[in-house]
Structures are given as structure tokens and as C-alpha cells.
Amino acid sequence: MYKNKISRFVFHDHIFHHLDLDLPAQVPEGLTVLMSASRSSYSKLDRVFQFSMEFPVPSYLVALVAGELQHVDIGPRSRVWAEPCLLSCAVKKLGGSVERWLGVAEDLFGPYLWGRCDIVFLPPSFPIVAMENPCLTFIIASILESSEFLLIDVIHEIAHGWFGNAVTNATWEEMWLSEGLATYAQRRITTEAYGEAFTCLETVVRLDALHRQLRLLGDNNPVSKLQVKFEPGVNPSTLMNLFTYEKGFCFVSYLSELSGDVRRFDSFLKDYISEFKFQSVVAQDLIAYFLRYFPDLQDAAVSQREGLEFERWMSGCGPPPFEPDLSAGGALIGPVQELCDLWKSGDTPDQQALATFDLSAWSTFQVVLFLDRMLDNSPLPHGTSRSVAHSAAAPAERLTDQKLCVSEVMASLSARYSSLFDGLNAEVQIRWLQMVVRNTFYPDLPRVRAFLHKHTSRMYTVPLYEDLVAGVMKCVAVEIFYQTQRRLHPNLRRTLQLILFPSSSAPANRSSPVPPIVAGSSPSGSPLQTPAATAAAAAAAGTNAAMALRDVNVSA
Question: Is the model's pLDDT at 72 over the cut of 70?
Fold first, then answer.
């Protein structure tokens, strides 16, 4: 960014205010500037880009990027922007899919209001997975490794074109009005485009993560409310969590269930957008409109049904009072649980039984669900222990007798799957490597090192650092941090400092000073996290503590 060349931009920094944009930006030759705007022009003579937005937007949706960017059109109203080294991969992954997804969304929720639906892929150090800036979605390039997660993330950001961008939550305390509705809309789109079974599998992965979070934090933690009140000491970043997305999704699914027919509810959402477009709303606006739209439900006092009261949904802690029926995904989910049960028995499973499960033919979400559920049971039972020679060990990993006693079960898992996982995407690899760390499986530690040297995004670093610190491998984590810190985003670097050195400023690197730790600092736009070992303390501290709020990647 060349901020000295960008005009001053003065606005009310409040989600409630919607503003009109007209902004010039000048950069050196060879760089391109993009902005979340509906109109743009470029003067080659003075290298000035001019942007304007014809629709009112809240300030958090104003975004600008500059770099060596090129583009390819992938549809009549969409193009992909990326650095030259990434462009062909991005185009191949998305192809004509964006226009298809837009068409499905328009059939469900009405016209797409923003004209353009372009996507720019940002470097791996970009601190969040994706951001739904109108006309120009930002997505981290790392997600290109996984076609299924890329699909979900892009569709989720497209859904924000209706829910969040067109109709915006009036306060940060009700983020679920954006994220819960967008998650519901995303799953309606994937159901129409890819079938109910695929959507149910993805939903199970996310709801598993929600319940995992509740086990860590406790059912009475106030962060699990849909309406979290801002009080002194409450960090707004704690609201970007799985509850905002998944508990919000469950409430919207409950409203759909009350309506009696999913198509009837689609019509409601379409009319809701038409009624409130380019406005900011509160939860009561949505609920009141719902009850007016379905007067028979208002007459039946559905908002007061025992155990499912709308007020309980908004202000109650704990799990969602209702979850949608996901049995349509049984054919995809069932084999995953069967394989988990084989490995969780405590001894190495029978090889003939394992041969019936071909993970190379599974989808990414199936493999992710398998590893997530195995992580829930880590450290695994040791079964019959054996010694494994520990060769070529770094000083931080070397034990006195150069031998390690490892779990027979973990050794068998590695022998059977680690080579397969090496060839799969980062979403799979990080979960396998978390198992390696949580089970203190030193033979696969080189894979952890290689992964953290390759990946510098928040979603692929923080979970591994947390697990390394929570176990006996903190010295390994510190060593890797000092080797890679120069390539990390400043926010991520501070987060890792807090994980590695929680009670004092980080010691200065011998070759590079480490920025000081800022007490209470947190990454913008990304869920806060803590090691599993400190989860209980975080739960006890409530909203004033950082909390482990990421078990799956979360898009904006």
C-alpha cells in the first residue's frame, strides 16, 4: 500500500452508518489497485485509479488492495485477480463456477445487487480466510489447495451479497444476523448445486466443531450467546466465532422449520432482502418481519414455545436448542464414524477391516471429519508400546537415550495414512499434524517443521503452535517461530508471541528484534485462540479472555 498517495478517507467508523464512496489512489508504475467499488477508471498518464460505489455500504466493507495483479474473466460479471504465479491455478479451480453459484443464489434470494462479483487472491500472510467486500471478495491464496473448502468459502462470500452486505446487522453485538443468515444461504446454495448429502456432511463438520468448542468453554460461557453484550474489557474479535456462524445458522434453520416448507422460507428471505436492502437491522426487525409474514405462526405464539423461546435463542448460553436433520448425509458420514470406531478401540485395528475403507476415494470433508473426530480422542490409547530409533534429531527434539516410546496405534496410523495425507491439501495435513503433536509422535515431527515453514497463514499456524506449546514440544515451536517470523503478518506474529511467551515480552531474536507483545491484542477479523491446555481457564475468565474459537476455518 502507498498510503501517502491515497486521498484521505473520512467516515463514521460505525457499522450502522452507510456511506457513499468516491476515492482516487495513485501508485508506482507496474502496480494495480483494486477496491470494493462498483465503478473504476484508470489514468495511465498520472497512474491514478479512481473508484466509486453507487450503493451505500457500511465502513467495514470498504477495502483496497495494491500489488502486481493480473486478471482473467471467468464469467459475464466475474473475474479472478491474482499475482501472475497464482492466476492460472485460481482460474482452473473456479472456472465458470462463480456464475453458476450466482444464478442459484438469485433463484433463491432475488437479484444480485452489486453488479460485479470479482475475486482477488491475496498472499498467504493475509490474516483471515476471506472477506465479503462488495464487488470484490478477498480470499487467501492458501485455500486454493482445497477445492471443497474453496467452494464453501466462495459461496459463503457470495451469500453475503444478500445477507450482510445488502442487509447489515446494526451492531457488532448481533453479528449472527450477517453470519448466521449467510451460512444458511450458503447451505441452501450448495444443496441446490451439489445435493443435500454434501451439504449435510459439511454441516456436520462445522456443528461438531461447535460442540467441541462448548466442551472447552462450558455451556454457561457468555460468548455462546447470539446477542453478546459489549461491556468493558470485552474484545470485539471474540464475536467472530463458531457460535455467530453455527448457532445463528441453527436459529435460521429453526425459522425455516417453523415455516413448514423450505421453498416457502426461501420466498420469505427473498422478500426480507427486498424490504430491508441497503439498511441496517437488529434481530427484532427480522423476527417481527417473520411473524408478520407468517401470521399463523404469530397466532400460534411460536416465539414462546417452551424450550425454544426466541428470547432464549438470543440471550441464552449453551448449545442451539434446535439443530436441523442431517440424516441425508448418512451415506457419507456413516463410514467416517465406522473407521473412527475401529481406531479408537485401543489396539491396532485388524488390517482386513481397515482395507474396506479407501481414504483416497473420500472427499476432503470426509477425511477432515475423520481426523477431527480422532483429534477429539487424542492422545490416543497407546496399545502395545514399542521403541523407535530417533535419528537425525535436532537438539530441541533429541532425548538422552536417542530412543522414544511411541503409541503402537499412532505408529500404525502413520504407516497407513501419512504418505496419503502428504499428497492431500493443507486442511487435511494440519489436522494430521495436530494428531502428531498431541500424541507426541516424534517420527513425524519433520512433517510439522516442513508444514510451518511452508504455511504462514493464521488458519494453518495457530492451531499447531497451540498444540506444540500445550505439550512437551514448546522448544520446537519457539525454534520454528524464530526461523519464520520475518514472513509472518504482524498480527499473526503478535498472536504467536502471546502463545509462546504468555507472561512476558518475547525475548529478542538474535538476528531480528521481535515486536513487543501488546496485552490483550488480537487479530482483526479472525477468531481468537488459546492452547487446549488453557481452555478451562479461558472459560472461567469468560469474555475477557482469549478463547479457543477455531477448530475449522472460519470465513468472514
Answer: yes
